[in-house]
Structures are given as C-alpha cells and as structure tokens.
Design brief:
The complex is a heterodimer of chains A (422) and B (170). Chain A is an alpha/beta fold. Chain A has two domains: 3-166 and 391-420, ATPase, nucleotide binding domain (Nucleotidyltransferase, domain 5), CATH 3.30.420.40; 201-303 and 348-385, Nucleotidyltransferase, domain 5, CATH 3.30.420.570. Helix content of chain A is 35%, strand content 19%. Chain A is built from 16 helices and 19 strands. Chain A has helices at residues 3-8, 46-51, 73-76, 91-108, 130-143, 158-166, 202-215, 225-235, 242-251, 253-256, 278-286, 294-298, 320-328, 336-340, 365-375, 392-403, and strands at residues 10-15, 19-24, 32-35, 38-40, 57-59, 77-78, 118-124, 150-157, 170-176, 181-187, 189-190, 196-198, 259-261, 268-270, 307-309, 312-315, 343-346, 383-385, 419-420. In chain A, strands 9, 10, 11, 12, 15, 16, 17 and 18 form an eight-stranded mixed beta sheet that branches. Chain A has a six-stranded mixed beta sheet with strand order 3-2-1-7-8-19, sandwiched between helices. In chain A, strand 15 and strand 16 (312-315) form a beta hairpin. Chain A is globular, with a radius of gyration of 22 Å. The mean pLDDT of chain A is 91. Chain B has 170 residues and is of the alpha+beta class. Chain B has one domain: Alpha-Beta Plaits, CATH 3.30.70. Chain B has four helices and nine strands. A nine-stranded antiparallel beta sheet of chain B has the order 2-3-4-5-1-6-9-8-7. In chain B, a hairpin with a 2-residue loop joins strand 2 and strand 3. In chain B, helix 3 packs across helix 4 (150-167). The longest helix of chain B is centred in the last third of the chain and has 18 residues, at 150-167. The radius of gyration of chain B is 16 Å and the shape is globular. The model of chain B has no long low-confidence stretch (mean pLDDT 85). The chains are: A alpha/beta (422), B alpha+beta (170). The A-B interface holds A 3, 7-8, 23, 25-30, 32, 107-112, 114-115, 167, 395, 398-399, 402-405 and B 5-9, 11, 38, 50-55, 58, 60, 62, 64, 90, 92, 94, 96, 112-116, 129, 131, 133-134, 136, 138, 140.
Chain lengths: 422, 170
Amino acid sequence: MSEEYKRSHVFGIDYGTSDFKYGPITIGEVPEVTENRGYFTEKDSVMSRVMGVSRNIVVGKELPLFLESREDVAERLVYPMRNGIVERNDVKAWQVTRELTRYALENFAPSDPDFRGFYVVASLAVVAPRYMYEQLFDIFGELNTERMFVRAATIIPQPLAVAIAHKIPTCVVVESGHGNTQVCPISMYPVRNAVLALNRGGSAANVLTSEILKDTGYGDLAKEEKLVRRVKEQIGLLPRRLEEAIDFARRNPDKVRREIRIEGTRIKIDLGDESWARFLIGEYVFNPGHEIFQSYFKRGMPRPSDVKIGDTYFYGMTDMAEAIIQAAEKCSIELQPHLYSKIILSGGNFNWNTPSGLEGVAVTSDEKIRIMLKERGIENIQATVAREPTYSVWRGCIVYGYAVPYDFRWRWERMEGWLNYA
Amino acid sequence: MDKPVSDIKLACRFYQEPGGWERISSNLSSNGWIKTDRRVVKDELEIESTVESIDGLEILLSLRSRVGFPNVETLKKLLGCLLTDCWYIDIYYCFRNINVESVAKELGLHLNCNEVKRLKLGGSEILLETYPAAGKIIVSQRVSLRDIGCIGKIYSKLLRKILISEVSQH
C-alpha cells in the first residue's frame, strides 16, 4: 500500500456528543452530519415483522422514520455520549457507536475492486479516557470482518484536530459543541493536565431560548427541541456588554425586533417588546453566572451543574474567560503569553453574527472573548473563530490523516500514528 | 433539497524536489493573485492551502469560487500557472446536494450504490464516484500540462451536465 493511496482515502470522523460528522477527504469542505444517537427497534414485534424491519439498531438520517409514538421511545432511543464520554460498561451506547461508525463508512465505501479500506482519523473529546480509544480501535477491527472498511486508523483529541486544521502549534483551543465545552492549551501536543471542561454547550442556550419562548407566549413551541434550536440560531444575539445592549434595545426597539418564520410551516415568531431578551441567549453561553439569569433559575430553569464523569470534572457555571485563564495558568508562566496570543474558538456554539444596524452592540465570539479577557487584565489577546467552526474538527482529522505517513505505526505512549488492520 | 454546491480540491504533486505553499503562492502572486497568509485571491476565485505532505512533495489546495462553479477559461489559466511548478495535479470536483439517480439518468449511466466508473473523455481518464445516500458525486482527474486542453471538454460533456441537470429540478 502506498502513500498515494492513503492520501486519497483519508476518512475523518468527529464523534461529537450531539452531532456525528464524517466523510472522506474527497468530499470537499463540508462533512456529512447526523445525530449521535441510535434507536433500538422491537424486532420481534408483529408490526416490525410485517413491515420487514430486520435491523436491531437504526442510526442516521432515516432514524426518525422508525420512531414509534410510544412512551418507551425514551428507553429505546439511546444517546451514547455524555459530555463526549461513553461509559465503559454501557453496552447499548457502544452498540450505537459501532453502528454509527459502520453507517458512516458504508455510506462512502466505494464498490471498486481497487478499494482496500480507508485510513480513518477519528476524533474524541480531549477528556476521553484510554478505554474509549481501545474500544474504538476494536470496533474498526470488528467492522473489517464484514468488509475491509478500515485499512488503518488513528485517534486524535478534538482540540488538537482544530489546532492542526489551523496549523497553529501553540494556542488555546476552546471547542464548544452542543453538550459541552473543552478548553485545551496546546504546545505541539495538548497539555492534558491543563485541560478544563465545562458542562455546557449549545444545548444550555437552547434551554434558555425555550424559557424566553414560554415567557413571550410561545409555550407550545418551547417543547420542540429542534424548533427551539432553530429559533436560537435565528434570533440569538451575543452582546458586547449585556447591560448596554439591553439599554440599547429598550431605546431602539425597532432595531432589535425581528419576526422569524419557520420554513415549511405557518409558524411566525416575534418577541415584540421582549426583543431585548435576544441578547440573553448569547450572554448565557459565555457567562451564565450573570445576575440577570437568577430569575430564570428561581423559576425552575436547570442551572448548568458541576458533574464528574470518569475522572473528569465538568464545571457548570464558570464563565468562558475564567475557564481560559484557569487552563492557561496551569501551564508554565513562559508559555502563558503565547497561549493568550492565539485563542481559537471552534464548534457550533461560537457561531454568532453581528446583524447590520447592531454593530457595536452585538458582537462575534472572538470579540466577546477579547473583551472579557481584557476586563480581567489580560493583554495582547488574539482570538479567532474557526472558519465554519462546526466542521473544524473534521477538517483537522482530514489534514492529520493526509500528513501522517502511512507507515508511521501507532504508539500508545505518544498516542499517535496508524494502527494497521491490513 | 438545497441548492447544489461544488467544492474543488487540487492535489498538486511536485517533481522530485519538495515544493510547498511558499513556492505555489509566490508563483501565483507573480501572476496577479493577492496573497494573505494561507490564501490567495484573484477575481472570483480563492485558493487556500489545506495541508502539505511531510516530504514536501505534495500540497492539497482548496479552490472556492464566489460565482458557483468557476469559469472554465479561468480554471484552465490557473491550472496552467500551477503546472509550471507541479508535475501533475489531481483534481477532485465534489458536487453535493445532488439527486444522484437523476443525474446518472441524465448522463445515460446505470449506476449502483457507491459505484466508481472510469470514463474516457477527451483522451483523459475520469473517475466518477456516486454516493446516493450522501447525495454526492465526485469527479476526479489527473492533469499534467498536456491535458489542460481536455478541461473544456470534460466540463461541457460531464461537469456542466451534472450542474444543469440538478438546477433544472429546482
């Protein structure tokens, strides 16, 4: 097998807690995305037999077609990851992970006699324990018994993938997805003992958006999680400074007010006089400890809590700037200025825009981080949002797979190289 | 289905001695491209350096156009320019948001799932990969200096048909 074959058969898989992104090097800039979940069918039921359902687990885009209108759906629908971690003994979760991996590879494995398997680069949360690496390597091997899907595989931490995609060897990567946020200083390799994890991501902002919808008379819509997510993406704003933004919104209600329509439905949403609340959504992602959110917590909105999963603590309420400072300060003093001068914000939770007319009031994520860090006395900050931040981990996987020579063997002590299955 | 989109990747191979982004970007700069960090821009086109192989013998570029699929003459000029430095270039055109079955019908091809077809067009071998589950078609081709003339034929006989056949459904 040659280097040339490897370069054209690199396959990236980003195991995100909520979204699973995958695809080969040849598909360009945007990977396929499906939800990281699986549905266990009731294969023995009469209806399943009549309908010809032969699979035990359904994953991917056709999963919604199999959902039954029954109360036990919650038991059958399995989300395998919590904060990027699959529990070691959670058999169902590992079955879903295996099925999703097979689904991804099957979708792109060409029916070509020259195909000898992909060079798979998988990416896991930086806090993923070693057993996850071992189980994933086992899954790749097991899948090969059906067909040669995986020629060789490697696994890299998500923040490292982001740094690789940007070719920045010394930086702090803040990767914030749907379920959690990882703050990871990198100096050629991730500085593992300085990693800080937050138990909140885009889903926390969804919860707040849902409360805002309830308060503005859209309580019936607030239960639909996917709709709430779309509303958040369309109306959410990230304020430069929350108090100033709310003051601006109250003085200029027309500039902040926006009516949105949900495509394919008759639903229209308009927050009316409460449009200032659009700024709360972005603020909550960066600083849930702001006193304005106390009223929501008092009314029963769940507060992001501190949790321990495996050996890792995930903090709930630490604000983004504080998390970056805490992570950087665990590194050597000599390194710290270099870390602050290259902060990469990656993941869908950093996708905030400044609509025209709101310049100076609403900001992008990099600007917000700069302001927050400056307020804490940090100088010479350079923060950048990854281009299309939702896909930067997958892109990093592709870049890594292309660059690492095909004959560079996997070494557990360094956690790098290819584990060969041929 | 969303509007079809095409991504183009260029895997540029240097002959025997390492090249890299510096060499490519300075060549393009001297031909009117404007360089900023890992990108060069000219008219509607933008090229980004994605990754270089460790031995320096290959570089992967990503080509984007603000007007959808790039103008063929502009693409030919770009390839001509790159091939003054490179031995050959593997071009990957990826079309996404595509109804693969209807495109295959339009092209008169009978394609099975994830099939790879080798076609001869304008004297050049083309690989056509179809991934119906992902709604993607990938067309790839190896180009050296003497193959640049084929680009126009491949566009009119294959790529344009993929684009038009899809657009007509919207």
